[in-house]
User: Fold this.
Amino acid sequence: MTGTIIRTAARIAAAGAAAAAVTIGPAAWAYKKAFSAADLRNRDDKDFNFRGQMLEHGDEITALIDRLAARRFEWVYTKSLDGLVLAGRLYEQGPGTPLVICFHGWKGTAFRDFAGGGNFLLDAGLSTILVDERGQGVSGGKSMTFGILERYDVRSWAEYARRRFGEERPVFLCGISMGAAAVLMSADTGLPKNVKGIIADCPFDSPKEILGKVAVENYGLPPQAMVYAKAAARLFGGFRLEDVSASEAVRVSSLPVLLIHGTADGFVPACMSARIAEANPGTVRYELFEGAEHGMSFFCDRERYEALTLGFIEEHR
Assistant:
């Protein structure tokens, strides 16, 4: 009898080990593709794929990157809730100016993603912090979490601004792509009262949904592969993909939001922004840019983009 129990237990243990091995291998691959920031340290701001409208505007983008990089700034730092040192570049324009804190996208850089936006904000006399997201640039961390942990990093930066510049300094949170999702998701995290509004360019709503879309459409994987993405997030990143959505955060927030999205966005479809806007139509102004691809609304209609952004800041400062 005892021998039978031992053999049965051994078979169960072996089956469990085999199941774990089947899961861990694909999960590790999924982590490397989606969440790992191992190759993103001090990335070259011009090291990205020129394609579509980005290729059309390539010379303009690189010139704006050079112009932004040539401006004088101060390195500033804050800490995340989980103890990471987060870095940003502060461009101080004077104590009477609103401060715009900018968050770049997934596998992006601050100079690349805000080549246009960063320059026009500074040209307009607005103080700006260009943040290196966790795990990217010179900020600490090993994982990108599609806004799930980054939303608290957004709050850490807003609290840094309040401590350094005082509660009377108006602060605006600005993001593009994953950074846009993060600033929206931060809306229900208890932001300081001097945060006056959020500007979000081409955000996704749900981390789980955008990962599923990218896995199927960009990597040709079956929908069932999301099982491994979920496992990767939990096993190697310590977070859950289902924990938050931008629309749910916006739904319970009273913060004004300017939401911008291109109608030709093939990476994060505009329907995701539409869902966010519908969650709280009383606080969200939703602006579509006809024919603009992912993150390219600024370059497709610069005059309108600048007018909307600067008008929003002036209205709510």
